[in-house]
Write a structure and sequence with these properties.
Layout: H1 2-6, H2 13-38, H3 52-59, H4 93-96, E1 111-113, E2 115-117, H5 124-134, E3 139-142, H6 144-147, H7 151-159, E4 163-166, H8 179-197, E5 203-204, H9 213-221, E6 225-226, H10 244-259, E7 267-268, E8 271-272, H11 276-291, E9 295-297, H12 299-303, H13 360-377
Parallel strand pairs: 1-7, 1-9, 2-3, 2-8, 3-4, 5-6
Helix pairs in contact: 2-13, 5-11, 8-9, 10-11
GO biological process, one term: fungal-type cell wall biogenesis
GO molecular function, one term: chitin deacetylase activity
Keywords: Hydrolase, Metal-binding
Length: about 375
């Protein structure tokens, strides 16, 4: 349709000039949209390590000295623990309950480190609305596959003063992947977030909490800090198909035990914003913390550190009807979302934000074709 309109020989000179200008812009925008649609790996699949982009990333990383730990067999969904004797130096979180030097407690005293995994998702905006009413800043451990699907929700997370962190591209257990696959999972997610917000992620949470010293080595080479959650008692079980009342009762007991402790350090919870049920549960758990005079903070706020690798980056994420915000001073009951000296100011739109909706290029074409048609009728 575009070519038929643009190449119409019956146009008068004046109209031809107008149409030609629009056609050039249309073709350029269509090409940009197509590039965005095809520039990222398939959603929810481990990215191809033989792609030129991944190969370029691998050349930038020195993995000399990486522990010689073979990838574990995949399980359902977590990996199968090695049946042979495991070297204690492997420090496997799942099989050996070993945390290594991962962050698993919020460093701020009496503080609930608020984290949500797996988004962004259609259920996320309702959570953002609630967190805004409570003046709570959270860390969102986002999946690259969902970032390119819902870029506007990601922008709102930053605009509302929240902190972004990585949860890999496809949510496969990293201990089952090769070193190159780990790099691909992390770098594609990092690229997606950077393309949309201008922020380079610093913190990450491994899917299922599965990690060992080989994975830690690769992640450190990429500049990442690993964040777990503070034991099973602070897993809200929002992902489990059990009655909500049981989840609330169990978590209430965990908060009571914490409230009776010295509270010299805080804790990190495991929550998810991928389902409406998880979002609703979060809204019922937060008041339990408030009632016990517990403060709330993002991971960066908990640690009092910069939230991103490019700590002085300016993020450009305009949202219609959303007030300009500075992520480092966003709403919170305690620490700032971005932490430290991070300056993440919402100013102007980032060009070339990725889209994963199949109709993007078609939508651009339809709009401009309509404009061309209107000119022809003049």
């Amino acid at each position: 349709m575009i070519l038929r309109i643009c190449a119409n020989p019956r146009l008068k000179l004046a109209k031809m000039i107008k149409v030609s200008s629009l056609c050039i812009l249309l073709i350029a925008l269509t090409a940009i949209s197509a590039q965005n649609l095809t520039g990222y790996p398939t959603r929810d699949e481990v990215p191809d390590v033989n792609s030129p982009q991944v190969q370029a990333w691998l050349k930038e990383i020195d993995l000399t000295g990486v522990p010689a730990i073979a990838p574990y067999p995949p399980g359902d969904p977590t990996p199968v623990c090695p049946t042979a004797a495991v070297n204690a130096n492997d420090c496997i979180r799942g099989c050996q309950s070993c945390n290594g030097d991962d962050l698993f407690e919020c460093s701020a005293p009496n503080t609930w480190g608020v984290t949500f995994d797996d988004g962004p998702a259609p259920s996320t905006p309702a959570l953002l609305d609630y967190l805004r009413t409570q003046k709570i800043s959270a860390s969102f451990f986002v999946m690259g596959s969902n970032v390119i699907m819902y870029p506007e929700i990601l922008k709102r997370e930053v605009a509302d003063g929240h902190h972004l962190a990585s949860h890999t591209w496809s949510h496969h257990a990293l201990t089952t992947l090769t070193n190159a696959e780990i790099v691909a999972e992390m770098k594609w997610t990092e690229k997606a977030v950077f393309d949309i917000t201008g922020l380079r992620l610093k913190y990450m949470r491994p899917p299922y909490g599965e990690i060992n010293n080989r994975v830690r080595f690769v992640l450190k080479k990429l500049g990442y800090v690993v964040v777990d959650w503070t034991g099973d008692e602070f897993d809200t079980l929002d992902w489990q198909p059990i009655p909500e009342s049981e989840k609330i009762t169990r978590f209430t007991s965990s908060l009571d035990a914490y409230a009776a402790s010295p509270r010299t350090k805080g804790f990190y919870c495991l929550e998810h914003d991928i389902t409406p049920e998880g979002v609703l549960l979060a809204q019922k758990l937060v008041p339990l913390g408030i009632a016990r005079n517990i403060s709330f903070a993002s991971v960066a706020g908990c640690e009092g550190a910069a939230g991103y690798q490019n700590s002085n980056a300016t993020s450009s994420v305009p949202l219609p009807g959303t007030a300009t915000a500075t992520a480092g001073t966003g709403p919170s009951r305690s620490q700032s979302a971005s932490g430290g000296s991070v300056t993440s100011i919402v100013t102007a739109k980032v060009p070339g934000a990725a889209s994963h909706t199949g109709g993007a290029a078609l939508g651009v074409a339809s709009v401009f074709a309509a404009l061309v048609a209107s000119i022809l009728l003049v």
